[in-house]
Specification:
It comes from Bacillus spizizenii (strain DSM 15029 / JCM 12233 / NBRC 101239 / NRRL B-23049 / TU-B-10) (Bacillus subtilis subsp. spizizenii). This is YqkK. It is built from two helices and no strands. It starts with a helix and ends in a 22-residue tail after the last helix. The protein has 71 residues and is mainly alpha-helical. 28% of the residues lie in helices and 0% in strands.
Length: 71
């Protein structure tokens, strides 16, 4: 891969006694800096629109329970 002009200039400065510009760069944070947004109501409804209403295997029944009578 070819070197950019800027990289060539930096290496030339280092070889000829210039200062290292890498030292003046800031450090990157340990967390992601891009914005995270919650899904809008429109996005949620669009996802629901493509679901098959007759596919009963996709339904989560964890919160559903039936009371059993003690015999």
């Amino acid at each position: 891969m070819a070197k950019s002009r800027a990289k060539k200039k930096r290496e030339h400065l280092l070889r000829n006694g210039g200062r290292d510009v890498i030292l003046s760069r800031g450090s990157t944070p340990s967390f992601s800096t891009h914005e995270r947004m919650a899904k809008s109501k429109k996005e949620i409804l669009n996802k629901r629109k493509h679901m098959n209403p007759y596919d009963h295997t996709a339904v989560d029944d964890k919160d559903f329970f039936v009371l059993q009578k003690a015999a």
